[in-house]
Specification:
It is built from 14 helices and 15 strands. The protein has 408 residues and is of the alpha+beta class. The chain has three domains: 173 residues, no CATH class; 126 residues, no CATH class; 80 residues, no CATH class. Strands 6, 7, 10, 11, 12, 13, 14 and 15 form an eight-stranded mixed β-sheet that branches. A three-stranded mixed β-sheet has the order 1-5-4, covered by helices on one side. A two-stranded antiparallel sheet has the order 2-3.
Amino acid sequence: MARRKVSKKYVSPAGNEILAQKAFFERLRIALEKLIGAGYFEKIPKTTLLKCYNVRYPTVKIVVDHTIIVDEKERKKYKEDFNNRLKTFQLKTMTGESISYASFLTEVLLLIQVFNFLPENEYKKETDIKALLKPYFEGEWYNRNVSEVYSNLNFYNYEYFDFYKGSVQFILSELRTIKPGGSNVLQLCRVPHQLASEEIDHAIRPISRLGYLPPNGTDWNKLALISAEQLGLENFEIQEKLPIYIQHHALRRYQERSLSSMGLAFIHLGHILVFAQNHTTVVRNSHILLAYYAGRHKIGYFVVTHHLDKWIVRTFLLLTNEGTPEGEKLKELTAINKIDAQYLKIDTMEAFINYDIEGNEKLFAIFKEAGCASLFEYAKFFDRTNKQIKNADFISKYLSIAGDQDEY
């Protein structure tokens, strides 16, 4: 016997409206408690709550154009992942409570903005709530967290970076953080790079200009100009600042050695070169090693050379690679060469993520003495919860052999 379908219970439009109000008031109550504590929401009259309901902020949504992400399934997954990040990514209120990005961009923002402009004497207890919310819209908390939300959400767009087509950014102009009455709908766009070509090693190679692309922008805000002095060169024939470009090859090497997105490096390096006045460098005869940091952790160097009217970033070297001071020290301590490093996978972050090198006291001491300890801190940036971390004795034994026999 066929099973009958259970029909949904009919709810009138008026009934739906009441349910929507109740759900909104509950979200507003939770948001207010996390901002200033319990006991205040109950003091707000129904008339004021209804005013808030009538001007409530729409749910944040994302529109993904097929020109940015071609595959339909991938577009669907991007939207799902984006919505999950809104729900799970959190920031701290001044009371120490955590609120989701989704709540911050809707109910929290509504409370901060509405109570900032609420007419005097709206109701008896309004002054108390307004005073408690004041630090949120007058202090630096708001601007800091808005910037954090933009940056953290944009981080996941770096994987859609294309050296030739451009970087992927959000169009944020409809967010209520930017536009009063905005739709809260985000879009993705591709910001073109300033491409050029240069003869390098007897071949014409593509290069792209480095600069600052703000997390909330769709245009290059400022392009990097660097002097020889900033790169550690003394008595250089050219004193004025020159534009700096990067080869696609350098970004590919960064990605395969650091196991991080080339799009991230492109944006982050440009930001550093625009705003930092002093750079940590090692000057060699034919090139400059420009130290690169992930947060506070030094992970390697970008190799920079001078070409007439510009600087060009040629490649990326992880700390353990040949050609770096740390790589040379590691070779001195262990006698390994490039092929050994590739075999052990210490020429990329793979060994530092997949092996428990820190758990091997002698082995860890070697890397630390070579100046590579920061790679272990960088390795903690990667999610290793579902990885089976391997014993590092294999690496330790191999390095002992390499240290005893010069042919390695």
